[in-house]
Amino acid sequence: AVTIPFTEPGGELRHYRIIAMPYALEDPMIENMFEPVLGAYDKSRWRLVRYQNGRNVDYREGLSKTRMERGNGYWFNARQQANLQFGQAVVADNARSKPFQLQMQQGWNQIGNPYPFELDWTAVQEHNDFEIGPLLTYDHDNLSLSENATLTIFEGGFVWSDEAISIDIPVTARAAPAGGRISTKTSV
Hints:
By secondary structure, the chain is mainly beta. It has helices spanning 30-38, 121-127, and strands at residues 2-4, 17-19, 24-25, 46-52, 55-58, 74-78, 84-86, 89-90, 100-104, 107-112, 119-120, 136-139, 144-148, 150-151, 156-161, 165-169, 181-186.
């Protein structure tokens, strides 16, 4: 079974995390993944939100897909501790010759790590033949987005794209053990 680490319950802005699923799940339906663990969707108890079409959209209020998809990031928050454990999963068949392809919309994109290892975002930028923006991850201590060179396992962030394009996220972009934050702040 796959478990997404979530250790900061509380329901406040500082408790939000951007989560992602790096595995192909046997049942990726959000309803079947979260509701057995957390109960029926109730924004006063837990929230799952995705940034799409220029705004944050709640899971039960118009989220464009009702499946948790590799490569997507999702805002998540719960008032109580949640053991997010999701059934059977397999590692995707991406390889050097077959990198993960991520569809980017024009503007801000909420992305998630599609691999079960940390990614060096600079290596992702250098791999593609066109300019890709820096990775901004949520700094819950400062309630802001901060530029970060590393995309952590089971996490996500935001990336700007000047146009709608498909980017490659190569398996060779695996981060060295010592990645880190850069202290640049911006807003979405």
